[in-house]
Amino acid sequence: MLTGSHVAPTANDGAFISAEIFGGDHAAATSLGELLDHLLGGGARIQADAGLSRFCQQRLAVIKHGAEAQSLECLHGLQAMSLVLGVALEHPRDELSMPVLADVAWHFHVQLHAVERWRELAENAAGLLENQRVAGDVAHCYVSWARSIGEWPESENPGPGQ
Q1: Region 26-53 average pLDDT
Q2: pLDDT for res 92
Q3: For residue 43, which of 37, 69, 118, 125 is within the disulfide window of CB 3.0 to 4.6 Å?
Q4: Residue 63, burial from CB neighbour count under 10 angstroms (0-12, 13-18, 19+)
Q5: Which pTM was predicted?
């Protein structure tokens, strides 16, 4: 992927690449972001940890530890990319093509976004673990909201008195 014939990027090239790659945080809205938004309760429409509040303490602990592990995994990936990029940059600058630099920059951006999202999930789970009463209140509100928009399944066999 390293080439010796590339012309060094200009300021305009950098602006184009930044807009193409980073285009606000819209470009970082990956499937991971969508997955975590749904797990957390549906995104910006409701309280961030509402979806998590429906889980028991044991499941919240597993989610918290798993999210922390994923966050660390992303950080290790960023460290590895930094080392590789450092070695690559020891070569004359014009040996790195703009597509390679753009790809590396994009991967850094995506991984940084992933670290933030996994940390958010871990912190939300930890908060609910520490505040069980609040978790119960949030879960009750979440169920009511989810039912109101048709996302919470209604029981086919209602219990006595229902």
Answers
A1: 68
A2: 64
A3: 37
A4: buried
A5: 0.67
